[in-house]
Amino acid sequence: MEVNIEQIMEEIREEIREKGLTNEIPSMEELSDTRKIMDGWGCFSKRQFAQDWERMSQMRIEYYRELDSSKRWIRFLVLGFKKGFRKAGCFLIKPVLDDINYYHMLVVRGFGHIGSYISENESLKERVKKLEQEVEDLLHKEHAGGRS
Q1: Burial classification of residue 126, based on how many CB atoms lie within 10 Å of its CB (0-12 exposed, 13-18 middle, 19 or more buried)
Q2: In sequence order, what DSSP letters do the residues of 97-128 get, joined into one string?
Q3: In terms of Cα–Cα distance, which of 69, 64, 68 is closest to 86?
Q4: Nearest-angstrom CA–CA distance, 12 and 127
């Protein structure tokens, strides 16, 4: 049995022409909009913001972790090596972890400020709507009173 690749390719090309498919590359804006929709970043969620802030405020990277070994017969050697390695690495890794934890604390504080700003902005929007309604009512009364 002989396979005719040219015939198969021609059938595929014909099917593409029939369906009207084109080989257009999407623009960066189209890709960006698609990613926003797919990732759920299309709109702001105050509940999600509060959950993220709560998770971030509880996050801390600890340098010290309990050492253990699954190899029972050489456990004392493995644990001794791990302890030695931990003490040697402490001079390099602990300052970096402290800096990371400090950075996380600043980010959490920033999130708190952003949350306060959003709440204040929402209350100001409500106040502006209320004042606009009052102005509209006063103008309506004044306009109705002037006709009499």
Answers
A1: exposed
A2: HHHHHHHHHHHHHHHHHHHHHHHHHHHHHHHH
A3: 64
A4: 63
Termini Cα distance of the chain: 99
What letter would DSSP give residue 40? T
Query: Which tokens is 76 given?
Result: 């004392």
User: What's the burial of 79, exposed, middle or buried (CB within 10 Å: 0-12/13-18/19+)?
Assistant: middle
pTM of the complete model: 0.47
Select, from the ranges 10-19, 44-53, 120-129, the one with the highest average predicted confidence (pLDDT): 120-129
Cα–Cα nearest to 115, from 46, 59, 58: 46
Please write the tens of the pLDDT for every residue from 22-41: 766 666 666 555 555 445 55
Q: What mean pLDDT is reported for the chain?
A: 78
Q: Convert the pLDDT of each residue in 105-123 to its tens digit.
A: 888 888 888 888 888 888 8
Distance between CA 34 and CA 36 in Å, rounded? Answer: 5
